[in-house]
Design brief:
The protein is of the alpha/beta class and 310 residues long. The protein has one domain: Spore Coat Polysaccharide Biosynthesis Protein SpsA, Chain A, CATH 3.90.550. Helix content is 26%, strand content 24%. The protein contains nine helices and 16 strands. The strands form five sheets. The protein has an eight-stranded mixed β-sheet, sandwiched between helices. A two-stranded antiparallel sheet has the order 5-14. The protein is globular and about 55 Å long.
Length: 310
């Protein structure tokens, strides 16, 4: 069974660390295939070709000035899929645990006993680098599941349906049915690529809300796992990075500014949750479940603009 790993990378120094670690920790590295959209100042094609597993990589380079955000790039990354069985979408700054592929398949097979279309997703725990540049992380407890819920300080505004989410610990040793996805860690059947393609007109905020509701209304079930076989290198809040799409160093050089892309995305999210659901579009709500059913599941009442605690 083959994996398609979708990666949208933006000026990320850890891209090759992620690729090498992913392959080296896999139980069956020969079954791992990458679709990489590298948004950068210069192409890294030659460096890709020097990797021992370069034949397992489909690589697209786009100058970072010409890009339109993570959703736009992930839409392109999905187009690099070539019939592999599973989809794993990750960020380009990840650390893997040994036999991560076997862990995910085993979890997925267990969920298939209760759901026709399970999705495994949550915000992975953090990893960092020590003074000698070695990756370090805290050992996970399998007694808790990270459940994604709206941040307590976030509100549904009249003109803005975009919410902030956070991971909350739930004491359980079993996967938890959820209502939200983590864009940096999604594992499921590759059927997802054709049924829930990324909306390229979104920017950054609202990405995960869009994917979650569109997947749910097409009959997919979101589960947060009790074992996350990878870690994420998180940025420090309120700190500027050159690896952020909206960094001022490139903002003025773009035809479509970050502020414009953000406003356009908010209008699109508002239409999805507050308007007609974009049912005339592949990027709109599905017809297997309703928005009301999603509201009952999540406690996020988009109609009355309230959020209930579950």
């Amino acid at each position: 069974m083959k994996f398609f790993i979708s990666i949208a990378s933006y000026c990320d120094e850890l891209l090759f660390f992620t690729l090498n670690d992913c392959i080296s920790k896999a139980n069956k590295p020969e079954n791992i295939f990458f679709g990489i959209v590298d948004q950068n100042e210069t192409t890294q094609k030659e460096k890709i070709e020097k990797l021992d597993f370069n034949k397992q990589i489909r690589y697209v380079y786009i100058n970072n000035i010409d890009t339109q955000g993570v959703c736009w790039a992930r839409n392109i990354a999905f187009s690099l899929w070539d019939g592999e069985d599973y989809l794993l979408q990750i960020d380009s700054h990840m650390l893997f645990e040994k036999d991560w592929d076997t862990t995910l398949i085993n979890q997925y097979n267990e969920l298939k006993k209760i759901s026709d279309k399970p999705i495994i997703t949550t915000y992975p725990y953090n990893f960092s680098f020590d003074e000698e540049n070695n990756p370090v992380f805290k050992k996970q407890s399998d007694k808790y599941v990270l459940v994604l819920r709206p941040h307590p300080d976030t509100l549904l505004e009249e003109e803005n349906a975009v919410l902030r989410f956070r991971a909350e610990h739930k004491l359980t040793d079993k996967p938890v049915l959820g209502c939200h996805v983590a864009g940096g860690f999604i594992f499921t059947s590759s059927d997802f690529i054709e049924e829930v393609p990324y909306d390229p007109f979104l920017y950054f905020h609202g990405e995960e809300q869009s994917i979650a509701i569109r997947a749910y209304t097409r009959g997919w079930d979101i589960y947060h796992p009790n074992k996350i076989p990878m870690h994420h290198h998180y940025k420090t809040i309120n700190t500027e990075y050159s690896s952020q799409h909206w960094n001022k160093s490139v903002e003025s050089k773009r035809t479509l500014s970050a502020s414009y892309l953000k406003i356009r995305a908010i209008k699109r999210i508002n239409r999805l949750f507050y308007g007609d659901g974009m049912r005339d579009s592949i990027y709109g709500l599905g017809d297997k479940r309703t928005l009301d059913e999603y509201i009952n599941l999540s406690g996020i009442d988009y109609k009355n603009k309230t959020i209930l605690s579950l």
